[in-house]
Design a protein that fits this description.
With 659 residues, the chain is an alpha/beta fold. 40% of the residues lie in helices and 16% in strands.
């Protein structure tokens, strides 16, 4: 039949290699081998009309989540563990099939950008979208908010250094019952509370040197207009309906539980331990249950969509229990975005918050006039979707790994490439809380960052923090040990020793050469520096892309420790006393400084301000990371200054006061 013929042609186009019989194929669009093929737009004229259908051609081993000819059709762009992608090929296959008579197959350029997997070498034209969650403004920022933002910041800085066009989003979640209640307790307007705490969160992001591109507020008019538009789309598609909820509610997490699930957790919040509240309320519901099979396939067949692995296993186990439809509106309070067409309901805060990832890029269509100017100003931001990485703490992984993909599938939008849900900070094995007096709040963090320097405190968070599946214990003793061992005694001391010797032995700190008078590199057995630095660079790249940040810092600091060993074995301070060893001395000091330069380039996303100080004392190079970490970046004759970037300091107690 004509319909079967149409379907067969579409299936033919979704193979990894170009369909046979097509002669005008651009080879760059269809690379041979197990490569990803770019997103294709299919336009099929079937019977009386032009039917636009959008899909993604997956690698052979990937699960195809989208469903052609169903409301669940969606772009699929789930990562496979490699977070670098080839540049957009800017072409798509156009299949023209007229009723009764096949049309010619041809390739035409389209005005959209396609992203798919590749290596570092092709990163220059690639876009990368990194997000934190929007932080709830019912209370002040604490170490959890700072840690999540710092992890995302390292990833964003690293991808910028790789030459990518990065858009880094953070912001505040300002609607919901808890915000309304907090304002009532203080006797102020709800908007005033939201304004004050949102400003505080932004100030903290600035103070902690978080390099965000945009700070969104869910009370922004553009966001509110787009959320209502997106809810209207879901209503029109039949994915939202009016019903009544009978069950249990976690006031702290603003999360609903069925009777069965509430009983499993003993009617207590799994996060706060507080009793759940019995709830009966008329709500609009989202048909989450309609996406049960697709979500299971997504997690089962895409092991790097949700990391770490422990989070993925938890989600799969919960999915296998079955999904219920979820409320997307509330009637028990008024502080929220009104439900389109029904002002007696406000949109559930979690739906409102999740949609910020696409409203920040202005992905909603047909915005109202109030946001029209903003729409045109942000039109170009659409190319950043889908997100490369969502970073958050583990307690909200369900919303991001289940509800969020389901919403996107319903809206027929591409899925994010990766969701990473890290663990919690704890103290002495106990959850942090104000009642226990073990909370690491802004005042405590400020005392530590003032004492050890912002980058010193940041380095501790990243090397000891709960980036994986396990929680991490905050300890003042470990802050001091990590700072002293890695930064003061290793990196700081090695930079100080090396630059001091160069400034002492060479006029005005002129960098010597590793090339002999015969024109050859002077080398030492056991220290193949071009290979050692290349291996360290590869390790750091791999670990940062996997968000194994402690391993990334270890690889970079390990390179510095190797320089320390090199100095101990070659003893340049003794060589300086022998004029016959002048060339060997120059080679040793050049190699020490060049290896340190590369280590500093690798550490720049981790300790950015200190690396700026290093860059002011010697040339760290220019261009993308791949270029900067190549051996030989230092030019003999250029000047270097003596450095002391991580001075030794005394210890602090757990509240950040001197011992």
């Amino acid at each position: 039949s004509d319909k079967q013929f149409c379907t067969n042609i579409v299936q033919c186009a979704t193979t990894i290699h170009p369909p046979s019989g097509i002669s005008s194929v651009c080879e760059s669009c269809f690379p041979l081998g197990p490569q990803f093929i770019s997103r294709a737009a299919y336009f099929i004229d079937y019977q009386s009309g032009l039917i636009p259908m959008f899909s993604t051609i997956q690698p052979a081993r990937a699960s195809v989540v989208n469903r052609i000819f169903t409301p669940q059709v969606a772009f699929q762009n789930v990562g496979r563990g490699c977070l670098s992608r080839l540049p957009p090929c800017r072409r798509a296959l156009v299949l023209g099939i007229w009723h009764g008579e096949p049309r010619e197959f041809r390739f035409q350029p389209l005005n959209h950008s396609v992203k798919y997997s590749s290596t570092v070498a092709h990163a220059a034209t690639e876009k990368c979208f990194v997000t934190t969650p929007v932080y709830y403004v019912n209370d002040k920022p604490h170490i959890g908010h700072v840690y999540t933002s710092t992890v995302a910041d390292v990833y964003a800085r690293f991808q910028r250094n790789m030459g990518k066009d990065v858009y880094f989003l953070t912001g505040t979640d300002e609607h919901g019952l808890k915000v309304e209640q907090s304002a009532e307790k203080r006797g102020i307007r709800t908007q005033q509370l939201a304004d004050e705490n949102s400003a505080l969160f932004r100030e903290v992001m600035d103070d902690m040197n978080i390099s965000f591109s945009y700070f969104i507020r869910t009370t922004d008019m553009s966001h509110k207009v787009q959320v209502q538009r997106l809810i209207e789309v879901l209503l029109q598609k039949g994915f939202i309906y009016l019903g009544k909820f009978e069950g249990w509610y976690d006031d702290g997490q603003e999360e609903y539980y069925t009777e069965t699930k509430a009983k499993e957790i003993d009617y207590k919040s799994p996060i706060s331990g507080k009793d759940l509240t019995r709830s009966s309320e008329e709500n609009y519901y989202f048909k989450l249950s309609a996406f049960q099979d697709q979500l299971l396939s997504l997690h089962a067949d895409n092991p790097t969509f949700l990391t770490p692995t422990a989070r993925r296993n938890e989600i799969i186990n919960r999915l296998e229990e079955g999904l219920s439809d979820i409320p997307v509106s509330r009637t028990s309070f008024t502080w929220g975005i009104p439900m389109p067409g029904d002002d007696s309901h406000v949109i559930y805060v979690w739906i409102d918050a999740l949609l910020n990832y696409i409203t920040a890029l202005n992905l909603a269509e047909s915005l109202g006039t109030e946001a029209e100017s903003n729409f045109h100003a942000k039109e170009a931001l659409k190319d950043y979707w889908p997100a490369s990485l969502h970073v958050m703490a583990k307690e909200i992984s369900w919303f991001h790994a289940v509800i969020w993909p389901a919403l996107l599938l319903a809206l027929e939008l591409p899925l994010p490439e990766r969701v990473h849900a890290h663990g919690f900070w704890i103290r002495e094995g106990k959850k942090m809380s104000k009642s226990l007096g073990n909370f690491v709040d802004l005042e405590v963090m400020k005392r530590f960052s003032d004492h050890y320097g912002l980058d010193g405190f940041r380095y501790y968070l990243l090397t000891e923090g709960p980036v994986g599946s396990q929680d991490a214990n905050f300890s003042a003793a470990r802050v001091h040990d990590v700072y002293s061992t890695d930064l003061a005694n290793t990196l700081g001391n090695c930079l100080s020793r090396t630059t001091a010797m160069i400034c002492k032995y060479y006029r005005e700190g002129a960098i010597p050469s590793e090339i002999s008078s015969a024109g050859k590199r002077i080398t030492r057995e056991g220290f193949d520096w071009p290979t050692l630095t290349a291996e360290a660079s590869t390790d750091v790249v791999r670990h940062v892309e996997a968000l194994e940040l402690p391993k990334a810092t270890s690889a970079a600091i390990g390179l510095v420790a190797r320089v320390d060993l090199f100095i101990s074995e070659t003893e340049p301070f003794r060589m300086a006393k022998d004029e016959l060893q002048a060339e060997e001395l120059g080679a040793v000091l050049y190699q020490c400084l060049e290896a340190l330069r590369i280590a500093c380039v690798l550490l720049e996303p981790i300790v950015p301000e200190k690396m700026k100080e290093v860059g002011a004392s010697m040339d760290l190079g220019s261009g993308p990371l791949e270029t900067k970490v190549k051996w030989g970046g230092l030019r003999p004759g250029d000047k270097v200054k003596k450095m002391n970037i991580f001075p030794r300091v005394p210890a602090l107690d757990d509240r950040g006061f001197p011992v």
